[in-house]
Amino acid sequence: MTVQKPGSVAGPSGDNGPVRYRILGTTQAFRPDGTSAPVGGARLRALLTVFALRPGRTVPVPVLVDEVWDGDPPADASGAVQALVGRLRRALGPDAVASVDGGYRLVAGADDVDLHRFERLVGDGVRALADGDAAKAAVVLDDALALWQGPALADLPDRTAAAARFEARRLDACRARLTAALALGQAEQYLPELTALCDAHPLDERLQGLRLRALRDAGRTAEALAGYEDVRRLLADRLGADPGAELRALHGELLEGSSPPPPLPVPSLGAPPPDPRIGLAASSSNAGRADISAPPAFEERGPGRSPRRGNLRSRLTSFVGRDAEIDTIRGDLTSARLVTLLGPGGAGKTRLSQEAGEAVAEAVPDGVWLAELAPVDDPENVPEAVLTAVGARETVLRGAGAEEMRAVMDRQDDPVSRLVEHCGRRRMLLILDNCEHVVDAAARLAERLLERCPGLTVLATSREPLGVPGELLRPVEPLARPYALRLLADRGAAARPGFDPADDPEAAAEICRRLDGLPLAIELAAARLRMLTLRQIAERLDDRFRLLTSGSRTVLPRQQTLRAVVDWSWDLLDEEERDVLRRLSVFAGGCDLAAAEAVCGPAALEALGSLVDKSLVVAASTDEGKMRYRLLETVAEYARERLDEVGARAVAERAHLTYYRELARTTDPLLRGPGQRAAIALLELEYENIRTALRHAVAERDEQEALVLALSLCWYWQMRDLRSEARTWSTEVKELGPDPFTAPAS
């Protein structure tokens, strides 16, 4: 990075402006003369990264502890932070970090940090592009991209979620820069870079569209047409989807040999590109000037404000830890007309959809409309519920005379036709919330509306996909640990003024971990702080369904208790799916397909796919290219209760024990051969299941099975230096019966 000499830029207090900070790459600090300040040591760089993310803002000590030590703080966490801050002051100057009540503040302005300077420059570049000044945009965007000297937040221990947001910004900036290049007639020059980006992001339709435009502008229309076919096949094979409206329109232009009127669409950075053929991708005349700023990483949003049109209500609580998701969904809505937020009950899909709707409200002149489908019992009533939500009845009847009103009321139009009539002439976003129990009806309605209403975009929330062509699925993951802790702190303070999770950080972390980072579960736990301490709540989580029963009185009954949340999903399963889910609860640490089939029977394959679709089973690929399946702890506990209800626990545990006994027995010899590394990796991956199997064998006093397992693990225990584990299990197994290797008494 070329270090810029300080000018008039100063920090908030004016005393640290000359120091510049780099967090787009290895964290560094630069003095006014361009020399690097000595910021040595991983912890010190992590601390500076956390500060630089929030220049000029107070960072509470608990946040510093959690982010610098990644959830594994030292015994005297506050003292350790104080010592680190002292080291940072010695490196940067005594006034570089200010002590404030409850935390510390980096005395710097946003422009003193390369990441925030990058954000500002990208905004300037996009605005120049929207104003038709492609040359200025190219220069400014080049300056912005040159600030990147490595991975974002490289020295932050848990960087994944925050870094993903800024990496997405970087890709947005690349799109904008390439758009400027095409507007300047530099298609041939930038084709190699475009091709490389498309290879790295093959499913990015906006990048693919830029590449096809570049090929056409370079006089290579035949290659552009062939490239479109490649993209179409790729989307079909990988996503089961067709190209979006913008790519299809470009394909039509290629077939006709026509060229689009200049300028090229400006890539969206928080506002949609100006293309009236698709829902949110159509923008008003000033969309290119939209503010691209977003809340800084790790910062909560306050209660939202309702958009100027639509029926979104103001939210009454803060929104925690989903900034990256908001940015992602905002981008999704510019490239797809149906986006479905998928996740288990209590993951926060409803709130996320409303915040995302708020974020794009300026791009839809006819508003963001929320249709809540949870109260709908009969699938036939879904169109009526949506009709009411979007205010279509008021639109039909307003201002009508008596005769006209009678004529309207006598009409036999079905609600779907009236919805098409209402939405067909509007540019709007429709949020279909909680589709899972009426998923077929919601899917049919969404498909019909999208086919007939070109200015409509649909954002759905569901525990399973709608299965409509062109649907973009966006999983809603549980909150990462820092955000889960912040949510607990926020809701806990509301329930018990003065509450501070730092009073018992271990219990707070245990609650968030055992509740899987599910926002609803954490909020229910926080409500218990009116009568219990953090430690008391943590100790009672083995009986979480009786503990977490104090939800808001104003929400639907299925959201008032943790059991009701899972009951709702359970009631939507058929008997085969229920049987497999019950049996999956005996696994520890997940399983692969072979293990699932061994324990759950031949129905496992089909049922697993359905349970994954319904967000009750989490599927993730391993480094070896296989899939593993696991249950969230809350779902696992619920499934174990159901397993006990039908009296099938013993059978499932015996099948589990048999499978993992054989896995341990057949893997043991491989530890002493050329396949040693793979054997160790397999036993490490499955160790929790193997240990659970051994525990079952000991509990059932099954001497033979326990002995086979213990003997099969001896070499592994020795290689991994698990001597304490080996002694414990050897003692347990010996107590089941006489040592078979002891010589018989004479």
From TrEMBL:
<dbReference type="GO" id="GO:0000160">
    <property type="term" value="P:phosphorelay signal transduction system"/>
</dbReference>
<dbReference type="Pfam" id="PF25872">
    <property type="entry name" value="HTH_77"/>
</dbReference>
<dbReference type="InterPro" id="IPR036388">
    <property type="entry name" value="WH-like_DNA-bd_sf"/>
</dbReference>
<dbReference type="InterPro" id="IPR016032">
    <property type="entry name" value="Sig_transdc_resp-reg_C-effctor"/>
</dbReference>
<dbReference type="Pfam" id="PF03704">
    <property type="entry name" value="BTAD"/>
</dbReference>
<feature type="compositionally biased region" description="Pro residues">
    <location>
        <begin position="259"/>
        <end position="276"/>
    </location>
</feature>
<keyword id="KW-0238">DNA-binding</keyword>
<dbReference type="GO" id="GO:0006355">
    <property type="term" value="P:regulation of DNA-templated transcription"/>
</dbReference>
<dbReference type="InterPro" id="IPR058852">
    <property type="entry name" value="HTH_77"/>
</dbReference>
<dbReference type="InterPro" id="IPR005158">
    <property type="entry name" value="BTAD"/>
</dbReference>
<feature type="DNA-binding region" description="OmpR/PhoB-type">
    <location>
        <begin position="11"/>
        <end position="108"/>
    </location>
</feature>
<dbReference type="GO" id="GO:0005524">
    <property type="term" value="F:ATP binding"/>
</dbReference>
<keyword id="KW-0067">ATP-binding</keyword>
<comment type="similarity">
    <text>Belongs to the AfsR/DnrI/RedD regulatory family.</text>
</comment>
<dbReference type="InterPro" id="IPR011990">
    <property type="entry name" value="TPR-like_helical_dom_sf"/>
</dbReference>
<dbReference type="InterPro" id="IPR027417">
    <property type="entry name" value="P-loop_NTPase"/>
</dbReference>
<protein>
    <submittedName>
        <fullName>AfsR/SARP family transcriptional regulator</fullName>
    </submittedName>
</protein>
<dbReference type="InterPro" id="IPR001867">
    <property type="entry name" value="OmpR/PhoB-type_DNA-bd"/>
</dbReference>
<keyword id="KW-0902">Two-component regulatory system</keyword>
<keyword id="KW-0547">Nucleotide-binding</keyword>
<feature type="region of interest" description="Disordered">
    <location>
        <begin position="254"/>
        <end position="313"/>
    </location>
</feature>
<dbReference type="Pfam" id="PF00486">
    <property type="entry name" value="Trans_reg_C"/>
</dbReference>
<feature type="domain" description="OmpR/PhoB-type">
    <location>
        <begin position="11"/>
        <end position="108"/>
    </location>
</feature>
<dbReference type="GO" id="GO:0003677">
    <property type="term" value="F:DNA binding"/>
</dbReference>
